[in-house]
Design goal:
Structural class of chain B: alpha+beta
Radius of gyration of chain A: 21 Å
Helix content of chain A: 55-70%
Largest sheet of chain B: 3 strands, antiparallel
Strand content of chain A: under 5%
Number of helices of chain A: 12
Order of helices and strands of chain B: HHEHEEHEEHH
Oligomer: heterodimer
Distance between the termini of chain B: 54 Å
Number of domains of chain A: 1
Strand content of chain B: 5-15%
Helix content of chain B: 10-25%
Strand order of the largest sheet of chain A: 1-2
Structural class of chain A: mainly alpha
Amino acid sequence: MIAFVTYKMILVLVIFTITLAIAAYSTYAERKVAAFLQDRVGPDRAGPFGIFQPLADGLKFIYKEEIIPNVSNKLLFVFGPCIAMLTALMAGVVVPWGDTVFIGGKEYSLQITDLNIGILYVFGVVSIGVYGIMIGGWSSNNKFSLLGAIRASAQMISYEIAMGLAIIALVLMTGTLSLREITMQQAGGLGGDWNFWNVVYQPLGFLIFIVCAFAECNRTPFDLPECETELVGGYHTEYSSMKLGFYLFAEYINMFISSAVISTLYFGGFNFPFMNNLGLDHNMISIIGTIVLFAKIVFFIFFFMWIRWTIPRFRYDQLMNLGWKIMIPLAIFNIALCALISLYINR
Amino acid sequence: MLTNRSKVVVKKEMNFWERMYLPAILSGVVITIKHLLRRKATIKFPEQKREISKVWRGQHVLKRDEHGAERCTACGLCAVACPAEAITMTAAERKKGDEGLFREEKYASVYEINMLRCIFCGLCEEACPKEAIFLTDRIVSTDYERHGFIYGKDKLVEAVDKRIDVTVRQTPEVLEFKKHKLLSHNR
């Protein structure tokens, strides 16, 4: 029992640290990618190539004056960023970060917990994330914050529907909600056993999912919650110091988690092509698998940034039109298509 | 129409392909990724300096003559010529015994250029009949305070032992012009 708890504690701690580290370096990567795509150099003063920039930014956030507006609801004002951060971190629990490893004859799974409703859990936790934004915006007692929060929550709720419907098509195909089982079904890949990643069978579903993931993370082209021209800073207008840092940080953690979920659901998770043809032992393949998973995640984080620095944002009515009139019907069409095809194949 | 670059905007309905967004986004994404590995336009300033033109006009210098005496006689022509009204000065009479310090009987006891007003046009240099003021290739450094940008004689007059070279900007045409007998007093 104690051994089990210690192993889980260590795993939780490691994943927590990795999540925070990747989120911190996402802020650095964001600025670097932005600079490189615009023919600039980006931050390069703090350490070689500016790699200590996240530390400098973090320190700056901590040392800034912390202002809680007098007219705000103080309890909820503090609560908002906590919820945003908490829910962002919680979603990483069910993601399978790797296959099992054998240490001293015992099998250890590189996943904190394998819930059989894993993907539902992710959706549940992500939905609570809206509360962080909503509470933060509402408790500030500022009209810009409130408008920003309403905008953000309306956007997130609208796109959650299409996202969920895209997942239903995937679940129809895989027959399970567990992220580990979905990953295992994509095992092998190219090589001995011809078994493709889900993106090959679900291209439309993947497209809908990734567009909705952009909207859920409040990333460009759906970054309307933060709008300098109309809403000052959006839902975090009144926030300062590390509380603002938490909101910004939660956004990057969300980006990391959604990249992980996209990789797991549609891009084979920790599986890689020719994995069963290399003749390596199980532990070795697990370790390579974890590295491969992180490579996929890093690619998707880069993709998020790449899109951000390519296209401008939608207008708010365009955003809602896209969500309700295009994404949701398209997702329903995708479900019908998948249902018909699976019915035809299984007949 | 002054140029042929203007485009006539056609406001037509987008076709299905265009309304799908995705092909346009794809082509946009290809454009941005091409910039990823392109040569960067940044010049890392303190280490690298942008190459400046030979006739580049920067911070002013008040020259001394070959014996080390200040050439400026506080005639005020530079202040009159200055379009930004950046130059002010106070004239004073040379005392006995100061012949080594000032070239002529009248000199500028105070000479100030406001670098925030100055537009570095070089008209002061052109107006100067005594070849006293020149614009050099030095950059005016930044400051946190406004008064730090008002340069007095302490910053403008060149040191006796550390003369500032102003010959770079003296093109052959300028040198030819200076041979004119009206400017013979400068020699």
